[in-house]
Design goal:
mainly alpha, two-stranded antiparallel sheet, 573 residues, rod-shaped, two-stranded antiparallel ribbon
Amino acid sequence: STIGELSQGTIISLLIKTQILILQQYPSLMKNLTFPSYDCLLLTLTLPPLGEDTATKFEFLATVVSLALKTCQVCETNGEELIREDGMAILSKSLRKYLVNYSDSMSKNGASANLIIGLIQTLSLLFQFPSGREAVPSSLLHDWIHCLSFPSLICYALDGIPHLSVDRNICEELIKGGVLLYLLPLTLFYDTTLRLENDASIVAEENKNAVQAVMALKALCMTVTSVTKALESCYTPPVAKMLLQRKDATEVLAILNSSQGDVERSTLLWKSAMTNELIQFITAQQQCATTSVHDSLRSLSEFQYDCLKNEIVIDGVYIRVFNKLGGGREAMSDVTSAANLAREILLFIKDQCMRNDDVRAKEEITSVVLSLKYMVGMDGLVDHVICEEGNWGVLCTLLEIMESSGEAYNLTCDILSLISTKRSVADALSGQKQLYRLLRLLSPPCAIVANRLWTILESLASSSSIAHEMLVTSAWLELLGIVVGYKDFSWSDRVGGVTILKRLLWDATVGPMLAPLLMRFLPSSLITTLKESSSPDIFLRTFDKNSNHPELIWDESLRSTLRGSLRTLLMHA
């Protein structure tokens, strides 16, 4: 064809395409040249050529927008010039005009889709400029969110959100318009079997959208911090923290879309059922209109997962998972502070003990006590926490209120058995006035399970500091009362009392002070037998047997008098 045979629109289109080719071929030469004709270029958007069919019109307008985009990409000052020429308003109106009748099926035709995509890309570029964000009309934000509802436009609209989010007012308008309800679902459709690479021949579009959605969520949180709480409710705090802090979005997306099933770590939990719950919740929320940022965020922040309602979370640790992993290195690897976790567990136990009649509370206590046992079993990890004022008392309270045949009781005994053998622990506990509580548990009817407690008390008594505390308190007198049987103590309880008194008598510091005190109640020959007999049974048989030997005058009347005296003393101690 000759020039005379071409329509005016076609000639203009060819000229525009020529300029685009020049910009593509010689970007370094053109980067300092300001485009001089934005007024004419923008005018073509408001006054499209007449007499053209619809497809040709869309193709022509797409070419115009493409030139505007290319000039701004090549030279940064062109973007500001385009904004000064009222580019934001004209491009926004054009987007609204052609978006009204747009559908994803039209993207297959190319012409109309290319026009809308070009408008979105050009506007996204202009959002980078403060002047561009200042010129954003409120209607554009509504249209921008609307673009997120079209799969063929999502990836282009996502590019603009981080730039828009720099401005707090715009950010709040996006939130009020429901942008979070479009971004959150995008993160739940990520194929972990495909790698997102620039040179990959096949890359799932959903993967690109998911990564961009994460970037958009980060940008929104940086400007409006209350968005973080909404993300913590929707993703759980550990996943939300990872999403916001990790540079690589693929790590958190791999968790949210794990192909291996549920992801369970001590400090992180994501189930496939949670994905379904979140999608159902968001779908329902999309039908509800919100009038403010507060209302939009409140509904998200109050969301709770039904499948997590029975999970016990203490200091960010999922107790069930922690126990499932056995509390070893794998379980502890993600725990920020073992000491803080132990303290929070003890506080949790203390609170739950107050509602001991609640069956659910008993089950929860058992779970967290098991966690504490695992931690105590890791040598020296939390010993200092157990020794802190009041924490030993929490364990004693557990022994006092839990059923002696229950799992929580036995686990508590396991914990005390593990730490009572450590001198540093015993030294720290001396002076906390908790020994009397253990002794009280040795009295009937608690004595049914006393054997374990006697072993714990014997281990503690091997420490000089605890031995001294037994001396200066009434603990030694309580032990003597158990030995002589001032109540209905079993033989094993009396053996336990003898064992500890014998240990105290052999203590280099405590022994010389204890012997004179015992002589107020027992003949010296019995004290000698108590200290030097090869087994507690020998002393108890000697004590229970009448003797009329010159070295020992001893009978039932003397034993009865001794029991009565000790009963009176101990009842008023």
